[in-house]
Amino acid sequence: MSSRSVSAVVPASSQLEGAGMVVHRTFPGARLDMVDPFLLLDELGPADFGPGEAPGFPDHPHRGFETVTYMLDGVMEHRDSAGHRGVVGPGDVQWMTAGSGLVHSEMPDSRGGPLHGFQLWVNLPAADKMSDPRYQELSAAEIPEWSGDGARVNVLAGAVGDVAGRIETHLPITYLHVRLDPGAAFTQPVPAALNAFVYLSDGSVSVGGEDVAAKATLLLDGDGDEVAISAGGDGADLLLLAGQPLREPVARYGPFVMNTKAELAEAVDDYQAGRMGVI
Q1: Cα–Cα distance measured from residue 66 to residue 257, given in angstroms and rounded to the nearest whole number
Q2: Which of 68, 72, 195, 279 could bridge across to 116 with cysteines, CB 3.0–4.6 Å?
C-alpha cells in the first residue's frame, strides 16, 4: 500500500454563524469550495458560556443534503417541523438526512457551560435529494471505538479494522475522530477512488511529509490507498473523512443544496409557502 500526500493545507478562519456562534471553518471558503461529497465543515468552539449567553442556530430550513452534528462537550437541543425532538450531548452524533426539506433548530443549553463540537454537511445524490427526512442518532456509548498503540478512534461511519460504524450512509463514507498520544501514529486504508481530508482540531501532525499545526484542513491527493498520520510532541486531535465523490452539478443557496438553479428556486418557494412546515 502507498500513503497519500497532502495536496493543500487550508487554515481555518473564525466567523459567526446562526445567532452569533463562533465557528472555525476551512470550507466552503475562498481557498476551498468543497471536498465532494462534503459541502461544509465547522468546528463549534471550544468555548465556555455563562447562563443564557450561548448563541445557537434558531429555526432554519434545509433541503437536498445531510447535516451531521457531533458533540464533544456540551449539548445541542434539536427540534424540527416534523415534531422530532432530541438532545445531542457529549460524544453523541446526530446524522440528519434533510432530503425533501424541513425546518429545524439547534440550540445549546440555556444554563451555559462548555461547548465544543462539529457540524458536517454531506451532499446527497440527485436521485435522493427529495427523499423523506430521516434521523440516525447514536449516544456516545453506542459509537464503536478502536484503540491501539497510542491511538483512540471513534468510528462514526466506515470502519477501522474490524470495528465498523453504525451510521448508514447513501455513499461510501468514512468519518473517524482520531486522538493520538504524543509521537503516536495511525494508518487508515482509504481507497484511491474516495476523496479524503484531515481536519486537525488540536495539536500537530505529520502527514505525507507535511508538518501541520491546528487548526487546519489537510486536503489529500488521490495517489495512494492509505492515510498515515503521526502526532507531534503535544499529541493530536483530528477528524479523518473520506467519501465517494458524486461528480454532479452543485447549486446552493444558503441552507439549500440542489443540482440546478430551478430546483433552488423551487426550494425557496416551498419554504416561503410553508410547505416545509414550522416548529
Answers
A1: 10
A2: 72
CA 53 to CA 45: how far, in whole Å?
A: 14
Whether 275 maps to a domain, the answer reads no
Any idea what the CATH number is for the domain that residue 55 is in? 2.60.120.10
Pick from 248, 265, 277, 279: which is nearest to 101 by CA? 277
**172 pLDDT tier (thresholds 50, 70, 90):** very high
DSSP assignment letter at 3: B
Q: In the predicted model, what is the mean pLDDT of residues 151-158?
A: 98
Q: Residue 274: which residues within 8 A CB-CB, separation 6 or more?
A: none
3-state secondary structure at position 20: coil
Q: Quick check: is 276 in a domain? A: no
The three cell numbers locating residue 206? 505529520
Burial classification of residue 95, based on how many CB atoms lie within 10 Å of its CB (0-12 exposed, 13-18 middle, 19 or more buried): buried
Asked if residue 278 belongs to a domain, the reply is no
Total domain count, the chain = 1
Q: Which of 19-23, 44-48, 57-61, 263-267 has the lowest mean pLDDT?
A: 19-23
φ/ψ of residue 81, rounded to 5: -75, -10
In DSSP terms, 126 is beta-bridged to none
Question: Element (H or E) spanning 266, and its range?
Answer: helix 261-272
Portion of the chain with pLDDT greater than 70, in percent: 100
Residue identified by cell 435529494 is 129
Give me the domain span that covers residue 154: 6-270
Q: Is the pLDDT of residue 222 over 90?
A: no
Chain-centroid distance, C-alpha 116: 13
